[in-house]
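Quick log. Single chain, no ligands specified.
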Amino acid sequence: MIMRVLTAMIIVVFLALVCTPWHITAKMTLVIAEIILIRILLKAKCIEYEFSGECITIKRFHPFYQKKRILPFAEFPRQYLKDFTFEESQMISKLIIVLNTGKRKDYTMKLQMAGFNDQQVKDLAKSLESIKKTNTNEY
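-> predicted structure:
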């Protein structure tokens, strides 16, 4: 949804630049806004979370450029999950995952979760919480 809004905003700003004979400062403001919107659009990433029972896989990809096979950003056994938190900021929430591997303790991984609605965040938190409970019950 956010990607559609950003794309629409870029098109509107571009058409305003082309079609209107405005003052130079107004055009410069629109050019700067266009550059910012294009930068946001190019840096956007989608996240795919998968839990298969023994392994947690997190994939990141660009919404407009998708290969047939998306390589995982992170893949680790469920036993490594120690804790997780969500940090809310203005428009983007962050998922912070804390892992305990055999070599490193309290390894943190931060993921920006732009475009996730409340239900998706709740589902992700519920899944991670159940994995965390299973891990604490086993040890």
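The first helix runs from residue 2 to 19.
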